[in-house]
Design a protein that fits this description.
The chain has 307 residues and is of the alpha/beta class. It has a single domain, classed as Spore Coat Polysaccharide Biosynthesis Protein SpsA, Chain A (Alpha-Beta Complex), CATH 3.90.550. 31% of the residues lie in helices and 20% in strands. Strands 1, 2, 3, 4, 5, 6, 7, 8, 9 and 10 form a 10-stranded mixed sheet that branches. It starts with 5 loop residues before the first strand and ends with a helix.
Amino acid sequence: MDRPILSIIVVFYNMTREAPRTLYTLSSKYQRGTNSDEYEVIIVDNGSTIPLDKQMVESFGPNFRLYRRDPSPSPAAAINAAVKSSHGNFVMICIDGARMLSPGIINFTLAGFKAYRNSIISTLGYHLGPKIQRFSIPEGYNRNTEDLLLDSVDWRENGYNLFKISSLAGASRKGWFCPLGESNCLSMKRIAYEELGGYDERFQSPGGGLVNHDFYKRACDKLDNLILLLGEGTFHQIHGGVATNMLPEHHPYMNFHNEYVAIRGFDFIRSKREPIYFGSIPNQSFSFLSYSVEVFERMINKNSTGE
């Protein structure tokens, strides 16, 4: 293939059930307004017990390739190595391979870079199911429930239908118009990634701890623009993740935060950078638009009254 414009790095660890669905949402058959010559997809298998099948990965298109790594608790080094091996002028990082993508992400990301080149482009995160999964799991949400839920909407033909069966993720819980804690699909110029030093490999907690939060905040604070894609997102499949699928009473956030403080020397605080909104809003996401406006209005009213 010709040199791609965008290199997409997706990290997997023990996700044989989830991977084929995620990869399909990255294929040119599913993504709208783009073709396989414009982007490459580097699948990072970060030491899975049952390795991802190379033939399965490559079946999604000539622009897909598998990159295997020895197991490591944190994906930081694997992401940096994959970026180094990539060929695009821009990079997109999906740190959690369990997250399916909406069908306009690649097209709007490429369009965003044409308008604002030195930017970080990000999306909101969603969880499949009625609630954040660490709350829905104790109520009976499981892989079988999720399989039936996905079968209930025609997401392969129209990926925006995933909005119908999802809820906002924790880091995105306040919607489009309030600061995000992180983004599980973030993009920038390759040279900007290198100037930021990539993902900080000192983060060694399982799943990377707050390594993605750290990188997102540093990029938001240092690049010229923050672009938030309206009407796009990533949708998390249940897979037993170290944080997303952990029961509330066992959630490791404090351990993650303690590691962050030990590395950075201060508490983690979300970036307050004002975003540029870019994209379109499919009708399947209108309920999230309404919710986002309500949350933003409450925040404005609270600030104006000094509460």
